[in-house]
Amino acid sequence: MGGRSAGRANYISIMILMAILVIAFGLRLWRIEAQSLWYDEGISALMAPRDLATITHDAAGDIHPPLYYYILHFWTALSGNSEIGLRYLSLIYGVLTVALTYKIGERLFNLGAGYFAGFIATFSPLLVYYSQEARMYMQVTFLAALSMYLFLRLLTRGYRIITVDSQGPSTSPLRSSLSSTGIGKVGRWDDLWVWIVYVLVTAAALYSHYFAFTIVLAQNFFLALTFWPRRSLAIKWVIAQGILLLLYVPWLAVSLKQLAVWPSVSEPFSFFTLLHKIFVAFSFGLSYEASNVEEVAFLALLVASLLLMYLPAQVGRPDRLRALAFNLAYVLFPVLVLYLLSLRRPMYNPKFLLLAVPGYCLLLGLGLDRLDRIVRCLPPISGMRLTRTALSMGAIAICVLLILTSSARSLLAYYYDPKYARDDYRGLVRQIESSFREGDAIVLNAPGQVEIFRYYYRGEGDVYPLPRQRPIDERDTEGELRRIAGGHKRVWLVLWAVQEADPNGFIEGWLDKHAYKANNTWYGGVRLCLYSLAAGEVGEATTDKVRVNFGNEVVLLGYRVVAQSPKPGDILPLTLFWQALEPLKKRYTVFVHLLDQREFICGQHDSEPAGGTKPTDSWAVADMVEDRHGIPILLGTPPGEYQIEVGLYETDTGKRLSILDEQGRATADRFLFGRVTVLRSNTPPKVEALRMPRLSGKTLLDNKVKFLGYGLYKLGSDSAEVNFAPADIAHLVLYWQALGDIEEDYARQIGLVGTNGVVTRTTEDEPMGGAYTTSKWHVGDLIRDQERIALHGLAPGEYKIVLYLKQDSGPGKMAGERVLRATVDLGSLWIR
């Protein structure tokens, strides 16, 4: 019976461990390819195909050792160079790290602590994040954990500095049954082989990331703390450390110069600030703002209290105190070393301390295990043992729920919230490729972007990495910018790590002064700008003089429009001339819009004056400020007459400055001027260039028209939305494509249908308010159509949006009576 019981417990234990590892694998695989590779991963992608000699040479000039690139070289030969292929290696390291966390906990404390630690590591947002990144951080975390495990084997097998607690007595039937199986116990290794594997694994960690030396220091510190209880261990340990040093010296000699110039990567910080930072990072990962910090603070306080209660109970048990000291050295020694190094060059980055996260999971696991034991040691309540078991399970369940809730919030934010996404080079390149025109140039501000940019970019456009040197030579860079401007009509500027490559913003400033910025979009931490050079046209344009008083603070003296007949996708160059009437204490942003006859925006550019290089609070009174703007004519804008509006708003609050008349009365908050004739585009744009939030592709009217898709926004916002307040106005943008000649004029009606099936709100009009009716559409035309839907007076709830396409009139119908020809369901919006 005893053997059968042990076998059953052994089976249960294996199943629990397998379940933990399957969940760990799933969390690390989920949406692994959803985010773009970022700059550092681009380096990995470009390094991997190179031969080992080239990798060695290139890594010597980098700030990372070469082992990860060596392994990735052979890995990608099997998996390919795709995003998932590159990242899958880190995923494997991530799952193995969870398994090692369990094994260390089981060996260091007991089986229960091992399971708790493995469970926490499974859901650790920081470990999940770096298990989906094609860099060396999960590799060094895995190797550091394996080094600590082998180190622990030496201590618990051959020398007994730590006595394993897994066979100790327990009042828990589950704990007793699991412990009796001996799960995780391995037969004795030959002592020499343990030492050999330990040295090789630790050397591999050092060759994966420089910060792995903190684990070696932690191990040496721990042995020193235990007063070298055995002379034979001391001798072998010194020999092993000497071999490690000999193995690492060749690379250290190559990389020492590079390490000496490693720049600061963070602001200076105090030790307690560092502890707070790593507590939040280790608990929440990099998306902690989406979580409830108070929950984990409570959990940390609880676990810390349990650990403090653990200490008095271990008086006379130095082996258990050493086990806790081992754990604390694992998690805290890297932190302490980073702090000391940062006294000279601040270098806080959570990824440098990732190798200590398994130690943090071990501490939490031990705390949960102590909670179980403490509750079970309470005096019986009404003489019922079951009550203590229920209390223990309930207390642990609450703590586990806190961990899962906090981790789930953070992981969901990481998976789905663009705010926490990596730099989106994939999306950036798609935008360039979808809107690229012959004669465009691409300037990469920070030449190191070439690797990641070329990973995604497959076009034939001219790419210019600038500046060519670091620190930047502004005279040389200006000469190259002039050559680029002379040979290209437009420039795409990709900005990343500007503080390192171009700290004074010379490149962007030069383009702001000599070209017209039309686009300024962030893709994570990368910014994409589009400039129109308008070479040779500026001198031909005339300047219209006006005097428009904005709030008795700023006056618009004049404006100059370069091109009067653009097409959709073109950039309309506009120059404004400003003057401050008094010293300005606030910063204002200039907005420039191109409006159709219904005052829908068909092109806009918002920016602080001169591309941000001349903020209003720096203006001198009476000085004239030249302010260039490029207005991008939105793709799908129908041909017709358009007007320009200009104004200013407070950068911080968005409040517009009013225009004052001669008597000082506010008359408007924008200045309207000019007539711009937009011509029909000869070449329809690519559909992906429209960046429609919702796609359809439904064909209508006997395949003469295709409804491509739509976007739903709050009026005045650029973010797609489905949740609205009763006072909001919904802004609907519809995209059509003409597939054939249309002889009739059609109207489109938009209806909101309540859950009771009743149409509660409708708007009806011809596309573009009749400015470009369907009978004028040409085959291939792509049309951007807009409509506003007022939501005031509607009860909270869900409303389906239905699009009806009606013929203007039909046989037997009265003039003006419209006939329904097609219906399209557009989804739902919610009024909260």
Question: Summed up, what is this model?
Answer:
By secondary structure, the protein is of the alpha+beta class.
Task: Write up this protein.
The chain is an alpha+beta fold and 832 residues long. Helix content is 42%, strand content 22%. The chain is built from 22 helices and 24 strands. The strands form five sheets. Strands 11-8-7-6-13-14 form a six-stranded antiparallel sheet, with no helix packed on it. Strands 2-1-3-5-4 form a five-stranded mixed sheet, sandwiched between helices. A hairpin with a 5-residue loop joins strand 9 and strand 10. The model is unreliable at 166-189 and 811-815 (pLDDT under 50).
Class derived from helix and strand content: alpha+beta
The helix fraction, in percent, is: 40-55%
Q: How many beta-strand elements? A: 24
- Terminal Cα span: 63 Å
Proportion of beta-strand residues: 15-25%
Radius of gyration: 33 Å
Silhouette: globular
- Average pLDDT confidence is 86
The number of helical segments is 22
Q: What does the largest sheet look like?
A: 6 strands, antiparallel
Main β-sheet, spatial strand arrangement: 11-8-7-6-13-14
Give start-end ranges of low-pLDDT stretches: 166-189, 811-815
